[in-house]
Automatic annotation (TrEMBL):
Region (Disordered): 248-280
Designated name of the protein: Ankyrin repeat domain-containing protein 28
Organism encoding this protein: Colletotrichum kahawae
ANK repeat extents: 980-1012, 1013-1045, 1080-1112, 1113-1143
Highest taxon above the source species: Eukaryota
PROSITE patterns, per database record: ANK_REP_REGION, ANK_REPEAT
Amino acid sequence: MQFLSESVPWLDNFIFAMAPLGIVTAVVSAIRVCGSPGLRAFIGRAQEGGGIAEAELCSSTSRDVCELYHNGAIVRVFGRPKILEIVHDPGETDFYTGLPKPTYGIYTFREYVENTVAGRQEWREGGKPSRTAITDPEIRGVHLVPAQDKTGGQDGFAPKPNLSFNIGIKKRPTYVYWLAAGLGFLAQMSVIVFGALVTHRWRWGKGDGPPPAWAFPMMTSGTILLSCGMFFCAFLVERSTKERIFHKTSRKPYPSARSSSEESSRPSPRTYVIQPGNQSIGDQTYDAFAFSDASSPLTDYVTSWKALPQAGDHLKAWLATGTTAIGFSLQFTGLRAMHSAVSVVLLAGILMMSIIGSALRTARLKKEQNLLDRRPDQVEGHELDWLAMQLGRGNSWSVKPQIKSSGSLLGSMNRRYDADTASQVEILEIHERFQNDFTLAISAFRYKQTTNPGELASRNAISIAENRWLRNNDGRQSNDLAVKLFYYRTRLAEMTGQSLRNVPTSSGEWDDRLVPLRQQVRQLKRAIESSTQALFNHANFRPGWSDVKSFAWSFDVDVSLSGAWADADLKRLHIFTRQTDLNSSRQSASWEVDQNSLEAALGLWVWSIVSNPLTESTDAMELKSSWASQVPVARIISFGVTLSDIGIAEREFRSWAEYLPGSMSTKRVKTAPRPANQGAHTIWMAEGFPSTLRPLTGSQADKYPAAELLRLCGWMSLELAQQQDDSTPALALTVSTKQSIPSLCAQDLYQGFLCQAATMLESIGGTTTLGPGSCDFYLTNDVVTKLVESVKDSGLGTQEDAYLMVIPALARQCRLPLINEVLPEIYKSANRERLAGQFTNAESILKQAWALSQGPQTRSLEPRNVHLYTIGQELAELYRNAYRTSLLGRNIQRIKRIELEDFGRAGIVWLEENKSQPWPVTELDQLIDRYTDFRRRWSAESPRSISTAAQVLETLARDDRAWCLFEISRTRDVALSDADGRPILSWAAQKGWREIVNASLEIGCEVNAEDNAGRTALSYAAQSGQDGIVRTLLENQAFPGARDAIGRTPLSYASEKEHIEVMKTLMDEPDVSVRAGDNSGRSPLHWAAAGGANSAIDLLLERRAAMNDKDSRGMTPVMTAWSEGQFSTADHLVERGARVEEV
């Protein structure tokens, strides 16, 4: 039965029919394959499925029958296991041919012999003339149209590889089969000849009598019929399949296209077979298997598939069965009547042919030819990654971070046009500066304004531009090992991926059980696509970047031939993220990223970590395994040089993460001497005192159990602080995690993507709000929340993991929303706590804001100084109010008054200590000095006394701000005004003394109180340009349209003095009119013209101020400017459209 399943040419059938053994098996086999239901019922196989008979008897493979390697042998199994057979042409190095689906030199055998020039020249199909060779050097590697199937079979090729024929059995020379057939014929004829001699010449009879006359003819006819019947049975079994046999020619591919030296140096194509492990068929589990013909190239290739049933098969089965049965009966009867010596000769012939038949099949695949024989468990799930390494002859492949040093700035932004599609596609590029080098961070492709995306040529233009761009970037290093490995693995993912449809392949779809990391790949794909959509829908992009149709984000790779990581030049690779519909708008567009590319990057990286020699061990059976997954893992949030750096980074992270990780810790890491160690592939060990993490070396691997080591991830978003020298360890803020290695690497790839994508943004956009958190408060932003939800919903990580990825990535590119966006809410929250008597809570909120204002992102921006000043002022006011409450508070026990005074004193002392923090601010220093003076005066005042409003007015009159602060903190009486009727609030607003304004309002000063001239505090604040105080007064119900005794409004005063920010604040109020005139009919535009305030004029005109309105004297604004001597302003008004004929 095994001989039948391995028979292809008719010569095998002939050998099988000579002096045959297993007659019943042959008959039963023919019936099982071609017999009618009646015949199959006769042998008890009426309900047998065709797949079982095919698996046991035929040479074919089909969708239900396959051949697998199992413990040293090729076995035929019934089911749908997965196995991949490829041909790799290492001489094909042009990966950027512009084809829709580049092959990178990796094909199925069918694709190779039917679709490529090299395959058509290298292989010739048996029984057919050699196909025309295409040797034009201009079309080397061109993919031809697949040859049409003329065999009538299923696509003319077996759906699964025939391992037995191609690698399982060693082929004998043809003459050996002819010799075996000749010996078989002689053995069969010798029985007949010997029977003739015994019967007619030697007259040997059975017992004492001569042999019957009918015995020899019956034996002879039976033998002939039996041989014919056996041949017919074997032929029916063999005919139930169809085969195509290819023979390798002696010609090299492309002989006319290369010189003889090039021919000899060009590596020959190789055939590889890879079988994933952990496949269960029935009660058997199959380990991983890999084969390569590198040491002994294949000379023949056979593909066999099940033929469709033919009319007359049942009749032929009856004929073969009947012939064999009759022949056997006649032979048996004849032999019974003849001398026993004839039976002995027949037995000798049968034994001889059995030995010859088995000898033809004894040279089989050796167990040592399984390249994965010593690592079945280690490689399980990583077979494709291992194969890619074998194709490229690499040993390790690791994604490495581009760690930006502190203080590095974003580099240049380029804009150019693709050479092939210059009229349609524009290319945008951003380069980042790392130390003294500029590296490409991200590139994007968009249509020019005149391009119609709906046209087919326009849709193809993006693809053409992308391919040309790749050729100019990755293509320059196409011979580089990192590039080869990446594209080899991409191709293997395509050939076995679940997204592949309508493409003939011998592998089928490998599910998550065979390639477990595909689950993480899909999660990563969903996270990237969802995050891209969130950014393009809600974030603020750089000019020109919001309408890109695709962009290529990059990552760096380090490879090794020996397994030891070295400080070599990193190779930068790119992955495209594209719009699925190029006609869609920015808001409605959906995005996709190539899953095969993600699988290539993730798979090679994870396999390099798992196969790291440092984590390999060998058991008693000499089988390799890996303990890489047993090493504890921590994710780095930030690097720093001092504990202060780490503290600032931790507070910044905690201000965004509502759900805080509970295992944050600071570790000392020795990173500077070996940049190659910066990555998830490195294992760290703790040594010395204080404990410092250093990379684990080979000599130390056996000294530490896995639980005492550490793997660090999260390098993609780090900003490494400048170290004084190589001996200075860095401090790392880390969080322990229990994620698997594939999940960690996938999260790092996402973090790298987000770092690159953030360079396209002008700002993160969205709305930033304040919420109560496990700390004093936490910040929320629409876009940040959507990014976190993208990660969480994709399954790539928990909400905690999402924050650990998103926040450091955005912080690295300074794209986190600034603290100033929520400062008003922070102040309100702190004020609510203070009014409720919770001074400590209020202080905690403000101190958190103080810390955030000094974070890495905020301190690089100019407005930070203003924000730090206002936070400092809020803190100082909190401490001053604690002093005031301790003196003037009602129903407060004495012990509480003492606590409040101590609280205020300690707080102001803390501010004094922070005066000398880095980046000192002069205004802040002055502010702290005032409150320091306040603290000293309060301490010197004994016993405590209460001040009056007159004393406060006196300090205002002599312009003593510090003393005024002291006096107003001790008074409840604010009703008194000076001789001009101006209250304390009016004077404080004009002077810009914000703390005095707040104190006045808090103790009951009327916000709309008027002086003798009818002016309010808002009027004076607007005239002096105090925008912050204007906002404070408006928040406290100040009337923005209030008119004084001469009819002027706050807007007219601000316009005259050209206080633009005050004007904007006032004009945003609904009660303010830009055309409101005073008692003399002058509008704000008149007063701006009189004051020579050109910027104020432009702003008023933007808000629809009337250019040619006249006052009570008939003067227009341009006439007012002339009359006041503001000639340049008059010219400006004329340029803006003022009528001059009336001047």
